[in-house]
Amino acid sequence: MKCRSRVICVVFAMCLMLVSACTKTERRGAASVIREGSQAPDIGVTSVSDDSVLKLSSLKGKVVLLNFWATWCPPCREEIPSMMKLQKSMTGKPFQMMAVSIDEGGKTAINSFFKESGFSLPTYLDSSGTAQKLYGLTGVPESFIIDKQGVLVKKIIGGLAWDSSEVFSFLEELIKK
User: Which of 34, 53, 63, 116 yields a CA-CA distance of 20 to 30 A from 153?
Assistant: First the structure.
């Protein structure tokens, strides 16, 4: 019985050390998390529709909505219709939406979700997780609005009604600058 309780204590202590190590790493990374007003880190993500790579740096001159999401995330699913309306209203303007999925199922999971739901977004994959790390992702949905010069203007944690008049006005002002 004593041996068994020692093993349990050792396993418990090892688990606590592992959790502490993860927390320290996250804190170290948190110091370099992008902040509003700073240059947005350049990332490359792969299009779900045609496997082309889109680099954020290639979008200078456009206002960018970079949104991290997942098919299994209820708040993400709730904001997609408003994102679709935003995308439609911004057609022909210097605006680019980048909906980056963090789904482990990749392209198959996303295409299946869009087929079942009837939703559609310009969706990309961050297979390596690099974009998530560079932007200090803490969960989904998380969105970043980047101006035409490549500067992060706004970070939004959680879902948002992207088709609201306030959002339209905010984006239109950025487009004019």
Answer: 53
